[in-house]
Amino acid sequence: MRGQIRKVFRIKNERKKNMKIAPSILSADFANLERDIHLVEKNGVDYLHVDIMDGHFVPNITMGANVVQAIRPIAKLPLDVHLMVEKPEHLIEDFANAGADIISVHIEATAHIHAVLQKIKNLNKKAGIVINPGTPISAIHAILSMVDQVLVMTVNPGFGGQKFLPEILTKIAEIATIKKNNNYSFEIEVDGGIDDHTIRQAKNAGANIFVAGSFIYNAADPAKKIALLKDSLEDRL
Ligand code: DX5
Ligand code: ZN
Fold it and tell me: Is 175 within the bounds of a domain?
């Protein structure tokens, strides 16, 4: 009996350990990026999420590999680079050389997803596949064995500060079931509209990496918001 209780505790703790918060610097103050990176790092987060937009794949332009290169020596945490660009195959090497640790590409952005993921792996980076709200999970079945993470978009990509789409929860659960049934090792990340309520919904559906931009950075006290996200993950709210 006691052994069983210990086992339940161990499983719970392991699950907790695996939960990661990834602030998106898209909502940081670009004139004070160093300050805003340190601000979240000192409050115990796990990744820095870097949103790259090209004005074609999404209707917005953000930053390029030069910004990743500039923040690499400043940041202690792994850089989780989310490429919202058409034909990412042309940019993988630039972002790898700039210091990205994880490079995630959209299934909708290339006709050559297998080759793109291979390229990322060959550069010794973690590879992620991203899926838009309108794309079915079946579109990524064929490459799930190759990826380190699956990023399920919970808003339409392009802008920070949008509302979480609750209908995507079933997709998160679907990918979590596929992972379990096939013994895949990828992590499940969610991105868009994450706050202290939606983070728990996404966690319960099976996600373990949570990107949050405006909820953290648009607040008067970002440290408090990070604490709220953690409390919510640990069911303390
Ligand atoms: C949206 C980006 C997100 C965005 C998240 O296209 O991929 O990472 O910055 O911002 P919030 O948390 O404000 O929805
Ligand atoms: Zn993102």
Answer: yes
Atom of ligand 1 nearest to the CA of 216: 12
pTM: predicted TM-score of the whole model, two decimal places? 0.94
Walk along the chain (237 residues) and give the pLDDT tens digit of each residue.
566 666 666 555 655 669 999 999 999 999 999 999 999 999 999 999 999 999 999 999 999 999 999 999 999 999 999 999 999 999 999 999 999 999 999 999 999 999 999 999 999 999 999 999 999 999 999 999 999 999 999 999 999 999 999 999 999 999 999 999 999 999 999 999 999 999 999 999 999 999 999 999 999 999 999 999 999 999 876
Looking at the structure of the chain, the number of domains it has is: 1
Could you tell me if residue 137 is inside a domain? yes
Ligand nearest to the CA of 158: 1
191 in catalytic set: yes
CB 84 within 8 A of CB 110: no
CATH of the domain at 224: 3.20.20.70
In a domain, 7, yes or no: no
Annotation marks residue 51 as catalytic: yes
* Ligand positioned closest to the Cα atom of 193: 1
CB neighbourhood size of 44 (10 A) = 11
Q: Is residue 3 part of a domain?
A: no
Domain region containing 122: 20-233
From CA 77, how far away is CA 165, in angstroms rounded? 28
Query: Packing angle between helix 198-205 and helix 222-233, nearest 10 degrees?
Result: 40
CA of 55 to the centre of ligand 2 (A): 15
54 lines ligand 1 (CB under 6 A): no
Q: How far apart are CA 81 and CA 65, in angstroms?
A: 10
